[in-house]
Design a protein that fits this description.
The chain has 141 residues and is mainly alpha-helical. The protein contains 1 helix and 3 strands, in the order αβββ. A 3-stranded mixed sheet has the order 1-2-3, with helices on one face.
């Protein structure tokens, strides 16, 4: 008489292979997810910078060719509802503050040149000297 084996479930070898496949997929995907989060923060900051520059342009037009000489508080609420958040992922905490300076420092804040005697008067930049994902310094945006 032939004995038949009742097969239910998976063998230990099959389970180990599935666990190894899940481990390999995890090892491949986790770094890519971290990079995607960093890129999204950078894209958010670039969009916010464009919004501030657009508001400065409107202010300049409406004020007879003059930029604000304060820390951009004069942009709210007529030109910007509020100062956008600056995100420099992995380098500085999020900030809405504006530092008035001629050259962007590594403050992690918006950097605005409010010196009327400077050639870059009215320039808004990112106050971070680190590099983004593509290797470009944040302060060059």
């Amino acid at each position: 008489m032939k004995q038949t084996r009742d097969i239910r479930g998976f063998t230990l070898m099959e389970l180990m292979i599935v666990i190894m496949i899940i481990g390999v997929l995890t090892a491949v995907l986790v770094p890519k997810i971290g990079s995607a989060v960093q890129k999204s923060g950078e894209a958010s900051s670039k969009g916010s910078l464009a919004s501030i520059r657009s508001s400065l342009s409107l202010y300049y037009t409406n004020n007879d060719g003059k930029y604000p000489t304060d820390n951009l508080a004069s942009l709210s609420p007529n030109y910007l509802p509020s100062m956008p958040v600056l995100k420099t992922p992995n380098y500085h905490p999020d900030s809405v503050l504006v530092m008035t300076e001629l050259v962007p420092s590594d403050s992690g804040e918006w950097s605005y040149d409010n010196n009327i005697n400077d050639v870059n008067f009215g320039a808004i930049r990112v106050g971070c000297t680190h590099n983004d994902v593509q290797g470009n310094p944040w302060s060059t945006y």
